[in-house]
């Protein structure tokens, strides 16, 4: 085989590998089984878009929503249905009102740093209707954190003696839960990962395997897009 | 044996001293290139001059590049000379060259030169490392101590999947997700991890130290002028390893104290959990993180 043909084949192989890698990286979230959720935007044309996100955190995602029914997970409310989607499309320069319903118990923070909410409006969150600037680190169940945007908050858990605790998701509002509300503003477009910092993956080494390492459960992306 | 009538002509025998030519060309090129590389290219090497350790690493890179330059010149001269002088001319018969025979003097010279270079670099590297640690993690009992290590400002670097946070014991356990350091200060970084192995790399400061669970890995750095630097995790640590980066800042004393005051105010809500010790019925958190894999951060 001539040298030129060999070089051409090598170049073609390298290009094909590059395209495949690029495709894999750019479609990582889809390949991981977590399609993006496009949140409905209010006041879209006014220059001040507003998005209301409703999320729930559950101790076990259940067989209807996952092949791993025992995995801890976040869910998002999509057209009235709770879906296991953790990649969310949000508009840039928007106000995002977030409501988290937590149905899981407390497992304590490893690091009290995450007990103080920061990065949202007023650096405060509403817990069951009360404004708080911190929670007891021992009461934390999960965190919602977007490190690149400086957003960190710990989510208090349901007490051990609470009645009517939720078994499998999707949980109902009649189940024991905590309600956390906060507001943050998106800025410029970007691709921001979010995650839980509480090692809450029961049964995994240090609590940080399985659902903590898989997009679609305790991790995801905020795809902030230009309006 | 008679030559075949259509064979290409062979090159006439060559009495040129090619070895001497190569040596002379190499010496000339090395004498010109080495100082140029050391003086003009060397200062551009990473990590830069943001810290004394960074400056030291730039100097080390300059010295090693100065050593490497003559070797590179020798390879370049040998390669170029061979291509120019020994390539086959058009229609020239390809004949085997003269046999190679050992030359004990050249062999001895080669062994002495390379051994000297390697030993020098080993000694130089050891000296540079022992001088101040060169920004590397030295474990819980460092032996390469900078001059003013007793007065070093302590910061705990806590790695966790997937973020570094920074606790300031002298500020009552205030913690931040951004490393903010005062300028012109000796800093002792106590690097550890709450979960898996990370590696704390403050790029422009020239600091790199493994963050191992249960280990207090100490690295020293002397900051210089105010600047911004990058922090990255340099150890593959899971799903979001690629996102485990941030910026840090070195501030003048005034702005740094303003930042510290503000950080302390923001952290005041958490302080009771840090101040109340486990023996007093409090949560097991503390101003200083006590490395232990099965404990919380403090």
Provide tags for this entry.
heterodimer; A: 227 residues; mainly beta; four-stranded mixed sheet; 12% helix; B: 298 residues; alpha+beta; Immunoglobulin-like; 2 domains; five-stranded mixed sheet; 5 helices; 36% helix; elongated
Protein described:
The complex is a heterodimer of chains A (227) and B (298). With 227 residues, chain A is mainly beta. Chain A is 12% helix and 33% strand. Chain A contains two helices and 14 strands. In chain A, the strands form three sheets. In chain A, strands 2, 3, 4, 5, 7, 8, 9 and 12 form an eight-stranded mixed sheet that branches. A four-stranded mixed sheet of chain A has the order 1-6-14-13, with no helix packed on it. The longest helix of chain A has 24 residues, at 3-26. Chain B is α+β, with helices and mostly antiparallel strands and 298 residues long. Chain B has two domains: 18-86 and 109-135; 150-279, Cupredoxins -  blue copper proteins (Immunoglobulin-like, Sandwich), CATH 2.60.40. Helix content of chain B is 36%, strand content 19%. Chain B contains five helices and ten strands, in the order H-H-H-E-E-E-E-E-E-E-E-E-E-H-H. Chain B has a five-stranded mixed sheet. A five-stranded mixed sheet of chain B has the order 4-10-9-6-7. In chain B, strand 1 (153-160) and strand 2 form a beta hairpin. In chain B, helix 1 (18-41) runs antiparallel to helix 2 and helix 2 runs antiparallel to helix 3. The longest helix of chain B has 35 residues, at 52-86. The radius of gyration of chain B is 29 Å and the shape is elongated. The mean pLDDT of chain B is 86. Classes of the chains: A mainly beta (227), B alpha+beta (298). At the A-B interface, loops of A face strand 2 of B.
